[in-house]
Amino acid sequence: MKRLAVLIAVLATVAAACGGDDDNSGTDPGTRSIEIAMEDIRFEPDEIEVAAGETVRFVFENNGKVAHDAFIGDEGAQADHEDEMTSDDEGMEHGGGDEDAITVDPGDTGELTYTFGEPGVLLIGCHQPGHYDAGMIIEVTVT
Ligand SMILES: [Cu+2]
Asked: Is 54 left (phi over 0), alpha (psi -120 to 50) or beta?
C-alpha cells in the first residue's frame, strides 16, 4: 500500500510540472525585435541602442524603389564588405552563407538576427553600389 501512495505522489508531481509548462513556451524573452524602414537611400531609424549580450531581431522593410541590403559589422568589416561588393560586377545579391547580411527587394521584408557582444559601436550598412558612401548606415551603440 505504501508503494502505491508513493507512485500516486510521483504522478501528481509530474502532472503538476507538465501543467506549468505552458507559461513560458513560445517566444524567447531575450530577443527584441526592431523594425527598420529602408528608404532610398537611407535607413529609418539610423541610430539604435542595444545592450551588450542582447540578441536583436532586425526586421527590414524596403519602402524604396531599389534593392537595399543590410550588413552588420564594425567599421573595418564594413570597409572590407564594401570592397567585396564593388570588386565584381555580378552577384550583388548576398548568398545564403553570409549570415550577417541580407538583401531586400523593393516591397519586401527581410530579417537579420544578431547577438551583440562587447560594448562599442557597430554599423549596419547598405552595400548596394554607392549607398554606403551616400550614408546609408545605421549606427548601433552597444552599451
Ligand atoms: Cu541601399
From this structure: beta
Host H or E run for residue 42: strand 42-44
Distance 128 CA to ligand 1 centre (A): 5
| Predicted TM-score of the model (pTM) | 0.73
AA letter at 13: T
Extract the C-alpha cell encoding 135.
550614408
Q: What is the pLDDT of residues 67-87, one digit of tens each?
A: 999 999 999 999 999 988 877
CA–CA gap between residue 73 and residue 85 (Å, rounded): 15
Dist. CA 25 → ligand 1 center (Å) = 37
Distance in Å, CA 124 to ligand 1 centroid: 11
- Residue 54 Cα to ligand 1 midpoint, Å, equals 26
| First vs last C-alpha separation in the chain | 61
Whose cell is 547580411? That residue is: 101
